Amino acid sequence: MPIPERRLILRHADEPGYSPDIGSYLKHGGYDALRKALASSPDAIATEVKASGLRGRGGAGFSCGLKWSFIPKNNTKPVYLICNADESEPGTFKDRQIIHKDPHQLLEGMAITAYAIGSRLAYIYIRGEFPEGARILERAIAEARAASFLGKDILGSGFGLDIHVHRGAGAYICGEETGLIESLEGKRPYPRIKPPYFPAVLGLYMCPTVVNNVETLCNVKHIVGMGGAEYARLGRPNNTGTRILCVSGDVRRPGYYEFEVGAVTIGQLIHDVCGGVRDGNRLKAIIPGGSSAKVLRAGDTFAIRRRKADGTVEAISLGLEDIPLDFDSLADAGSMAGSGGIIVMDHTRDMVEALANINEFYAHESCGQCTPCREGSLWMKKITARMLSGRGRASDPDLLASVANNIAGRTICAFGEACAWPTQSFVEKFRDEFDARATAPAKEVPRAA
């Protein structure tokens, strides 16, 4: 029997009769949280967000309240807010659901965030392949401005905010916050070196800037509505609130689901929520946080830290399907929660073919600024393509691992890790398949049994 979801962000997304216009939103309590926020102080809102324990939902899982606090206290420059709606991570399709089905929730979250950080100008940087999403947001912004939820004097509070939609050109690297900022400034999206270019200090136009993901900003509205302490009761310590999980691959019911963070295990999600592995096949592996996350293999055991009632932490051994889907447990397992894109692979999947597909994507998407990434991602693509063509060499698995090891940690931004981690983990976990591909013609290599 499917485990019931705890829908917070997606509460009305698939509700019959609910539409993305402001009328539907107001009928369901829309902009009440903004009214509440404006009756409070910016510092009080920031304190509530810190108390909530909200972690970023875009990939890194960094503390949202802590990120806001990095804005210099004695700042005299304009402060900018950017919503990262680029959503280019393969396996991830949650933010577009929010934009298409409940855009005013995002606008309300942005308005509250801007008030808390002292921003009067915000941008939504949306992926170029989302033209309809951009149109929906433009309409929603016009509706909100007409109703005095945006503009020079929001609800007579004296606080003003303008939001502009900026369409990207379909570059994966623009999901990285400093690459996004460079693109927004009209330049080639080369990520900046941190330090000194931490966006909260030197961001858009060299001014303090906060960059948050769509889902993260939507959570701010709910934190203000229910209070930070109440929000923190959802999920687990250090893994609070709800999380939208995008499930794709070899399951009977792929789709997007929302649960309290850590409320379901990998096995419960696959079998109870998604109806099990397709065609009665066996689970082989999952990628838990979008294609850049390290693959986890079925049958392995993992040392996971668990907090006991007395506050102490113990390490327990769990199989793949028993791992809770939260930030810390997945990190303990050697991967990451990332963007919430869960890719399920059954026992019929050729892991060399799967990695070749991932490598082709990252080779295409490298911005080219850093030599290890620019050259290494292309080398990994060529090696896996060679193995698939039947021209593999016995040294190829070790060569793949060597190239990946010389990319990770040697680039300006995390794209180096994003393209290296899949190769590192696939070769390590499925070495037998890579060895077979490296020494036999493609036609003689059977699918994994």
Widest sheet: strand ordering: 8-7-13-9-10
Radius of gyration over all CA atoms, rounded: 22 Å
What is the straight-line distance between the termini?
Answer: 29 Å
* Domain module count: 3
Mean pLDDT: 94
**Which superfamily, in CATH terms, is the homologous superfamily of the largest domain?**
NADH-ubiquinone oxidoreductase 51kDa subunit
Q: Count of helices?
A: 17
CATH topology of the largest domain: Rossmann fold
Approximately how much beta-strand content do the residues carry? 15-25%
> For the report, how would you describe the main beta sheet?
5 strands, mixed
Helix proportion: 25-40%
Question: What overall geometry do the principal axes of the alpha carbons give?
Answer: globular
User: Quick one: CATH class of the largest domain?
Assistant: Alpha Beta
Low-confidence stretches: none
Encode the helix/strand succession as letters: HHHHEHHEHEHEHHEEEEHEEEEHEHHHHH
What does this protein look like?
- This protein is an alpha/beta fold and 449 residues long.
- It folds into three domains: 22-233, Rossmann fold (3-Layer(aba) Sandwich), CATH 3.40.50; 241-346, Ubiquitin-like (UB roll) (Roll), CATH 3.10.20; 351-444, NADH-ubiquinone oxidoreductase 51kDa subunit, iron-sulphur binding domain (de novo design (two linked rop proteins), Up-down Bundle).
- It has 17 helices and 13 strands.
- It has helices at residues 22-27, 32-38, 42-52, 64-69, 95-101, 103-117, 131-146, 177-184, 214-226, 228-232, 266-273, 327-332, 351-365, 371-388, 396-405, 415-429, 431-439, and strands at 80-85, 121-126, 162-167, 209-213, 235-236, 239-240, 242-249, 255-260, 283-287, 296-297, 301-307, 313-319, 341-346.
- Strands 8-7-13-9-10 form a five-stranded mixed beta sheet, with no helix packed on it. A four-stranded parallel beta sheet has the order 3-2-1-4, with helices on both faces. Strands 5-6 form a two-stranded antiparallel sheet.
- A hairpin with a 5-residue loop joins strand 11 (301-307) and strand 12 (313-319).
- Helix 13 (351-365) packs antiparallel against helix 16 (415-429), helix 14 packs parallel to helix 16 (415-429) and helix 15 runs antiparallel to helix 16.
- The model has no long low-confidence stretch (mean pLDDT 94).
